Amino acid sequence: MTTSETTMKSPIFPTWCPGCGDYGIWSAIKKALAESNIPEEQLVVVYGVGCSGNMADFIRCYGFHALHGRALPVAEAIKLANHKLKVLVVAGDGDTYGEGMGHFISACRGNHDITLLVHDNQVYGLTTGQAAPTTEHGRRTKTTPFGVIEMPVNPVGLALTSDATFIARGYAGNIPYTAELIKKAINHKGFSLVDVFQPCVTFNKVNTHLWYQERVYQLETVNHDTHNKEKAWNLTFEHEKLPIGVFYEDTSEPSYSDSVSLLKEKALTEYPIDNVNLGDVFKKFV
């Protein structure tokens, strides 16, 4: 059976705040997965910790709720164990670019064939409004009453310099457009990032739905060349207007799992384990 919005329906309805951008991302993910016709048994979603991670209860599919900042290495392990699976990661900006920053850069560099969907709301929402890695410089929050000292992380720019092979940005208020970006990311062979602007209506009173609607524009309207990394890099510094869409894509690089010789014939899960002698392994490495 392939995934559909009906088969993915969970008996648990979301508990996010009314108006939260997570609802838009949730809808976009379900729409993208349903239209991608992925068999249920070939799909796994790994969730981070935070408001985004609560989605583990709201989508009926095979999933794994990871530790804070550790969703990406779990997803990489799943992909290496059975590279025939489609593996998605749903995480937040604090989860990914804070606790999980090292894992994020490593996943980009390795070109692991997984899709990372980041709920980017510039705040720690689940823990009620602390400064996040993406919070603007000078912003006052619960943990920065005199303003954020550090400069904010540039997720798209960081992915570019870390050699990710598919990099896009969406906006939770435009569900059809974000769903199309997610579909492209899922179909990409290699590491794909979709960083999604996600208004937090309770704890971020600056980056609201209206604020985004006045600033976002689609890269298709300016005929952006998605194969030009330098132009993509320059776009990441736009602040008065905020581009959404595919910033960069490269289909020439093999994915990590495609480069592992042991996986050329079959998945690790298809190899027998009854003839494995761990004693011999320990003798070699201990």
Helix percentage: 25-40%
Mean pLDDT, nearest integer? Answer: 95
The topology string of helices and strands comes to: HEEHEHHEHEHEHEHEH
Largest sheet: 8 strands, mixed
Summed up, what is this model?
Keywords: Iron, Iron-sulfur, Magnesium, Metal-binding, Oxidoreductase, Thiamine pyrophosphate. The chain has 286 residues and is an alpha/beta fold. The chain has nine helices and eight strands.
Question: Which helices and strands occur, and which strands form pairs?
Answer:
Elements: H1 22-36, E1 43-47, E2 62-65, H2 71-81, E3 86-92, H3 93-99, H4 101-110, E4 115-120, H5 155-161, E5 166-171, H6 175-187, E6 192-197, H7 209-213, E7 216-218, H8 229-235, E8 242-249, H9 278-285
Parallel strand pairs: 1-2, 1-3, 3-4, 4-6, 5-6, 7-8
Antiparallel strand pairs: 5-8
Helix pairs in contact: 1-6, 3-4
Q: What can you tell me about this protein's structure?
A:
The mean pLDDT is 95. The longest helix is centred in the first third of the chain and has 15 residues, at 22-36. The protein is globular. Strand 7, helix 8 and strand 8 form a beta-alpha-beta unit. The protein starts with 21 loop residues before the first helix and ends with a helix. The chain is 29% helix and 16% strand. Strands 2-1-3-4-6-5-8-7 form an eight-stranded mixed beta sheet, sandwiched between helices. The chain has one domain (22-285): 3-Layer(aba) Sandwich (Rossmann fold). It has helices spanning 22-36, 71-81, 93-99, 101-110, 155-161, 175-187, 209-213, 229-235, 278-285; strands spanning 43-47, 62-65, 86-92, 115-120, 166-171, 192-197, 216-218, 242-249.
